[in-house]
Structures are given as C-alpha cells and as structure tokens.
Amino acid sequence: MYEIKTDIHTHTIESRHAYCTIGEYVAQAKKIGVELVGMTDHGPAMGGAPHFYYFLNLSAIPHMVDGVWILKGAEANVIDFEGNVDLEDRILKKLDVVIASMHESVIIPGTMEDHTNAYLNIVHNPLIDVIGHSGNPNFKYDYERVIAECAKYDTIVEINNHSFEFRRGSAANCKEIARLCKKYGTYIAVNSDAHFYTEMGVYGNSIEVLEELDFPEEKIINRNARVLLDFLSKKKGIRFTGE
C-alpha cells in the first residue's frame, strides 16, 4: 500500500469553482496527516480565475502554517499548441510549483500531433514542473514520446485522482500513462485536484492503478514532504525553511 503524504494540486475559493480557503486545507491536512499542501489555483485564462496580481502576492503566505507545509503555485492553462501558458515567465519564476494543464474552456482540442507538440514544449520549459491531468481523452497525445522526454528533463507527470470520476474516458489513459512512467523511470505526482477540503489527500483510484502496475515508490515524487521539497529545492533554487 502506497503512503502519499502530500497533495500538490488543490484549488481554493480564488478559483471561483472551488469552495474552501487555504486555512481549511491546512486544518484538514493536520487532521488526516498530510504534510504538505500545494495551492495551485487556475491561471487567469480560466473563467473566474484570479488576476495575475494574486500570484505575484503569494509571498505573503508562509511556507509553513501550523506545522503543515504550503507550496505557493499555480495550475497554468495551456493556451496554444506551442505549449505557451497564461502566466508570464516573471510570475512563473516566483512560484514554488507550476502545473500546466489543458482545459476545454481555454483551448479547443486539436489533433494528437497538436497536443504532442504542446506537451513536448512544456516539458522543455524549465519553469514548468508538472504536466497536469493529461489522461483527458479530449487532449490525447503520443504518450510514449512525451513521457520518455519527461524522464530526461525531470518533468513530473501527474496521476490525477479527480480525472477517474470527472473526466470521462480518462481511466484507461491514466493507467497507460502510469505504465509508461514506470517503463521510462519518469517521476509522477499523485494528486487529488481537490475543489473542497474533504477531497484533499484522497487517492483511491490512483493507488489502485499503481498497485496493479507495481509502480516503484521511489518514483512518486510527492510521497512525502521532504522528498518533494528536496527535489524542488534542487530544481528551482528555493530555500524551504518553514518560516
């Protein structure tokens, strides 16, 4: 049984279609033994998402609150098939963790070649850390080609528990993505994509897939806070002190 003690993909009320504050996530994390929470509200191209000032001012929040680590990040929206996202580099550089995801409300799905090109450019962007919920069948891509490249560039591939229930047709794709991550030694992050605090740290569907594949635990980069923080510190030059 895998024990995953962090969740680096959650949404607060600032995303407008989510329903809790970061304080409520911290309280729940403390209650259920989650060591670290990632605040990754949607970038401004998503309807109702916060203004870019919100991301610039995340420095107001400490990295640790009541014994729980907080990563100050974003789920940036992919806005074209060149892999550009809706936050400027000057903002991305200030964030602890950046997830890049495709959403139908932001970009109309294209061809598999379009999606593959976008993801390859994302992988090659050193300011992006995680490819988000890429099992979405509306944005299918050349999994093998992209995931092999992720292994070379230490880009994390998300196994998104939310997708199994809310993105119809994602389950088989997520399993194939996880299989290829095992094949190529690509890091994964198992995340909830929570929109309410009771969803945080809930990974039943994802864990089932990983157990079936006998996925190597050492390639789950968010299995605990220290492993994740060490990885991000080395990659991004951030000093996580808990202050």
UniProtKB/TrEMBL annotation:
Gene3D superfamilies: Metal-dependent hydrolases. SUPFAM superfamilies: PHP domain-like (SSF89550). CDD domains: PHP_HisPPase_Ycdx_like. Pfam families: PHP. GO terms for biological process: bacterial-type flagellum-dependent swarming motility. SMART domains: POLIIIAc. Residues 6-80 form the Polymerase/histidinol phosphatase N-terminal domain. One of its GO terms (cellular component) is cytosol. Transmembrane segments: none annotated. One of its GO terms (molecular function) is zinc ion binding. NCBIfam families: PRK09248.1. This is Phosphatase. It comes from Feifania hominis.
